[in-house]
Predict the 3D structure of the following.
Amino acid sequence: MIRAFATFVFVALAALPARAIDIQQITSPGGIKAWLVEDHSIPFTAMTLMFKGGASLDAPDKRGAINLMTALLEEGSGDMNSVQFAEGVESLGAMARFDVSDDALVVSARALTENRDQAADLLRQALTDPRFDQDAVERVRAQVQSVIRSEATDPQSIASKELAKLAWGDHPYATSINGTAESVGQLTRDDLIDAKNRVLARDRVFVAASGDINAEDLGKLLDDVLGGLPATGSAPLPQPATLQLKGGVSVIDWDSPQTVVSFAQPGLPMDDPDYFAAFVADHILGGGGFSSRLMDQIREKRGLTYGVATGLSNGVYGETWQGGMASANEKVAEAVGLIRSEWDRFAKDGVTDKELTDAKTYLTGEYPLRFDGNGKIASILAGMQLIGLPADYVNTRNSKIEAVTAADVQRVSQRLLHSDQIRFVLVGRPEGIDATN
Amino acid sequence: MKMLVRLAPFALALAATPALAEMPKGISHFKLDNGLEAVVIEDHRAPVVVQMVWYKIGSADEMPGKSGIAHYLEHLMFKGTDKLGPGELSKTVTANGGMDNAFTSYDYTAYFQRIAADRLPLVMEMEADRMQNLKIGEDDWKAERQVVLEERSQRTDSDPSAQFSEERSAVQFYNHPYGRPVIGWRQEMEGLTRDDAIAWYDAHYAPNDAVLIIAGDVTPEKAKELAEQYYGPIPAKPDATRKARPQEPEQRSARRMERSDPRVAQPVMIRTTLAPERNAGDQKTAAALSVLAELLAGSAQTSVLARDLVLTGKALYVDAGYDGLSVDPTTFGISMVPAPGVSNADAEAALDAALQKFLTDGPDAAQLERVKTQIQAARVYAQDSAHGRAYDYGQGLSIGLTIEDVNDWPDILGAVTADDIRAAAKLVLDSRASVTGWLLPEGAPQPGATAQPVSAQPGEVE
């Protein structure tokens, strides 16, 4: 029984009072492009750099080189060893994180206005003149190898890796960016220098900054930080990946009371005309947290899992429609059966008007909430550039969601949602469900 | 799997803006007649608001035999009221573009929503409604008990390091209820009933036992007006506030434990020592312990243990952790993963030698200066997240600090001296009140295999 408060009634599709985010598109004197959101209320600047290609630019037989190289950028550069470099960053109260994924090498930096130029100089040094000292290489290599072995005993990692292997064939997406204990063990200093030249170049960097800095100062800073990098990377950008996934079930034996489930089926690229219809469909089916159909059927009604979720996973070089959950070994077969039946029911019957309205209100309402801090803004704006979105996407995105109709959702669901195309990877001791080919 | 965009975390633990006697910029507070205490944190940069209600009651307030009831009730709080159907609160928040969740810890149970600022009245109305009108349907409580059991399976029973952490807490706290897991012991969770949950709710959920935090694009005047409107009419319950808990007796012998499991890839050592917590008007020792943890392991390159153990090839990772936000005495923790080829005994001896050296030498002046610089910078960065500051005030007030204590914390951290740190180090590094645990792979330790260091601080459960 549901009785609503009077105040619960809101105008359907009410657009949020989105305080427009003013994105300046600037070009530095040296020709480096960046997006900037100025906000002088807090005396610091957040900046994100994304170098496209990321770990997918690893050379053949050198898997893990870009990941190891990335971890070594903060371990000494110029005339500073790893300890001296860290002391330099700490004494400014600055921060720089170096991360890498399948799609990009990401630098997240933050500096106080009072010493921003000094912080930028340390960042320049790390990106253009890393030392790769022998002791640092060996220390970080051992840490990476420990991560690899840790992941080998983590059921979630085991499931994700198996699914990636089944999905992506020869593409780098099919294997872990960490490499294997063996491949990482064989990497030399020359391999690390080659890895750096493959990815750290001006032709593949996307820049966004937010905070207490103006366009002129940002331009100068970017020329300082990035001007010394090679104009072009030494490796061409990765090719698109071709999805190899076949429907069915894989089971990996693991001694645990619960089975971890990862699953995927074909997705669609962001420039597909039905992308936003699929995005709305996913929210109703499994992406919408407590309000999704899968959560309702599997958790709320039956208590078979603590959580189940789906999402459109759109990488720069390939995409799937995927999901995950964990369920007791004796109950996981029922939970997997419910995913399949909800999948097919969705394609067959479509969505109700209320589901559609609620989904659109959530998806449009949630979007502006993401932009509530300099760090978040810089990260989002760099990511938009990485995947090729224009700056005015922040203003047009919600209208694309609002334009989705129930017929659009049904069409894309009938096109894409087929339970026999889902590949489930089960890690555990599942009862009543067998592996297929 | 593939991510659209990789988002780097920008979370920071240290809080607030400068000012001693007066309130920091953008922070205000008030108390309603029914005892509800409220803090407003203004941030008008984005049209977003966060509402949090923290109840000053947690798993350490449970009666023996009913472990897990605080967390189980947290789940059942989503099952509806006279006006709201099961799950309707979350669905309503979602349908209005917001998100909501809740979490339970030893000392508090908290509920929050993050939503467009113009929807604040909606979420305040619903949160106030479930403060006094919870209804739990016959069909809902059994399915939800299965959900929390699945949560335990996922978080604890599938993870040897989480199981080990739970047992280490039980060994550290012989008498205090911090020795029981927040989520509960499985066999006790299986016996929890709707009556248990309702009794817990009736006894403890009341405005005079709660803290309301409103953070984001809101003025203090509007926040107060809405709080009066929605929470003001709810009557106080004089007996709702928490009772004193059994305290730990003096620990005279250091305790050790060991566990092997085939799912563990490499040995990890975790040592915790009983340590004082932050108390109202008395946070100096806690501040020194916080800075001590930073000095020992806050940096992978420059910290004491990184230099002595990691850079020298004796350990792959070291960590130190201390969080003084608890009602009763807590722990200071150190963890270590030995480097391949270094025996567990040698690694632990090297750790002990490094700690002994620190006890003798005290902090390095240049390192302490750098840590102080980072503390000052963190005050600036913390202003970037109203949500983060909402946690600082909510957590602080729920464990019995005053708003002035939370305001003053960054200054107290900044005033920590080398002598304070020596005294704090002696308190936790030269103590018999320790538990040293080794979590090992099955069979002989495999050189080269590994696990990430495990946080020594127990976490929250959602």
